[in-house]
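Human: Here is a favour to ask of a fellow structure person. Comparing notes only helps if you start from a blank page. I am asking you to supply a protein in sequence and C-alpha cell form. Write it directly below this note and I will take it from there.

Assistant:
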Amino acid sequence: MTITFLDPSNAPKPAANYSNVAIIPAEKKLLSISGQIGNDMEGNVAESLEEQYRLALQNINLIVKSQGGTKEDIAKITVFMTDEPDWVKIKSAADEFLASPRP
C-alpha cells in the first residue's frame, strides 16, 4: 500500500504546496531521519541556500533508498531556513526529490 496524502474538507487548505495529513499504512517501515544539511559526500556544505536545500533533499532520498524506499515513501519534511530563498530553485529541487502531492 502507498502513503495517502489528504486535505480534509473540514480543515483549512494548506498555505503552500503540501498536504495536511499523511496516512501511513501499518506495513510501511517508519524511519526517523536526523536533521540533514546541504552537504555532499565529502562533507562540503554548498554555498547557496538553494543548493543546500537541494543537497539536503538528495541526502534524505539516499537515506530512504538505503532502507528500500523511494521519494513516494516520504511522509513528512520539515524545513528551517535562515534567509529568503529563490523560490523557483526551491520548487525545482522539491519537484526532483519529493513526490506529488507534497508531504
